[in-house]
């Protein structure tokens, strides 16, 4: 399986230098990350919104080594929110944040991340939108869920992400579904040990369906994060069985992947949100996109061979 190998490479400084220096890399990265800064991304936001798509925006960058970098990450999101305000998109354009960017892994990281993310959530609420806390590796999740619970006391629409491949997630889903949260369900894209996660694709898919059924039957708002046609169809059926209207759940996919399917779902009346990342510190994000799907890796390898 190449996925774990790629995820290991995502933490290698040598591989980062090699891949970043390849002439073709920027062309391929642009498929998934359509801009380096907020000036680049505003036209992309307008274009997607005009096509009836919704967005969740991610300023990429996870390798935070000091509080100043965490504060800079906070400020980058505040700048994004300031630029979203005149677009008046409301919840059609929300934010996704990784707490590692806000200093979670630093000494005193839980409190630091909370203090940095709260102004972002507050600013998002002021322009009529919200924030979703992305899930990272399993060692960070207790802190993420505690911050999520804290933020929801004042901002109940704050969302979070759960990962189907982790054993713990079925219990997390039951808790979150009962308290009415916005929950994005994904398969998972971090290298995890067999002691905490399913490693077999079919086991992960089965867990995904079980968890999604729990979310659909619950009191929250499910967000189906998947490009898998089978899981998308199952999601539609589970929503029908649960008696959910089309605006009571949504689909989410990554920018640059399955654009025709995104448009199809919009045409059918579904809410379809595009996870749109931008920024210059793209390496970790890009490598996880390669690890998630063999077709992405083939696309990159073919480009390296033909244009490198």
From TrEMBL:
Pathway entry: Amino-acid degradation; L-proline degradation into L-glutamate; L-glutamate from L-proline: step 1/2
Record's catalysed reaction(s): L-proline + a quinone = (S)-1-pyrroline-5-carboxylate + a quinol + H(+)
SUPFAM superfamilies registered for this protein in UniProt: FAD-linked oxidoreductase
Keyword field: FAD, Flavoprotein, Nucleotide-binding, Oxidoreductase, Proline metabolism
Domain called Proline dehydrogenase: residue spans: 45-301
Cofactor dependency: FAD
Keyword Metal-binding: no
Pfam family membership, one: Pro_dh
InterPro entries assigned: FAD-linked_oxidoreductase-like, PRODH_bac_arc, Proline_DH_dom, Proline_oxidase
EC numbers, comma separated: 1.5.5.2
Record-given protein name: proline dehydrogenase
Organism: Streptomyces venetus
Taxon lineage: Bacteria, Bacillati, Actinomycetota, Actinomycetes, Kitasatosporales
């Amino acid at each position: 399986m190449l996925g774990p190998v790629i995820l290991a490479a995502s933490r290698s400084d040598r591989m980062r230098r090699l891949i970043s220096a390849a002439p073709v890399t920027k062309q391929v990265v642009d498929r998934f990350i359509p801009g380096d800064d907020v000036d680049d991304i505003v036209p992309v936001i307008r274009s997607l919104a005009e096509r009836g798509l919704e967005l969740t925006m991610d300023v990429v960058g996870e390798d935070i080594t000091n509080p100043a970098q965490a504060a800079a990450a906070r400020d980058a999101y505040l700048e994004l929110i300031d630029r979203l305000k005149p677009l008046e998109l409301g919840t059609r354009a929300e934010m996704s944040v990784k707490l590692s960017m806000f200093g979670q892994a630093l000494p005193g990281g839980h409190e630091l991340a909370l203090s940095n993310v709260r102004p972002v959530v507050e600013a998002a609420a002021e322009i009529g939108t919200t924030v979703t806390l992305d899930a990272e590796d399993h060692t960070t999740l207790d802190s993420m869920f505690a911050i999520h619970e804290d933020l929801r006391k004042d901002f109940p629409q704050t969302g979070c992400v759960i990962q189907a491949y982790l054993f713990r997630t079925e219990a997390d889903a039951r808790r979150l579904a009962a308290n009415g949260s916005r929950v994005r369900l994904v398969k998972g894209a971090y290298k995890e040990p067999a002691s905490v996660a399913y490693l077999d694709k079919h086991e992960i898919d089965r867990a995904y369906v079980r968890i999604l059924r729990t979310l659909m039957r619950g009191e929250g708002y499910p967000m189906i994060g998947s490009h898998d046609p089978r899981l998308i169809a199952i999601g539609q059926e589970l929503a029908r069985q649960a008696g959910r209207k089309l605006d009571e759940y949504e689909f989410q996919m990554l920018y640059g992947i399955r654009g025709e399917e995104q448009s199809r779902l919009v045409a059918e009346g579904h809410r379809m949100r595009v996870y749109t990342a931008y920024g210059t510190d793209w390496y970790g994000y890009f490598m996880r996109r390669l690890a998630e799907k063999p077709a992405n890796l083939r696309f990159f390898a073919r480009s390296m061979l033909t244009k490198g």
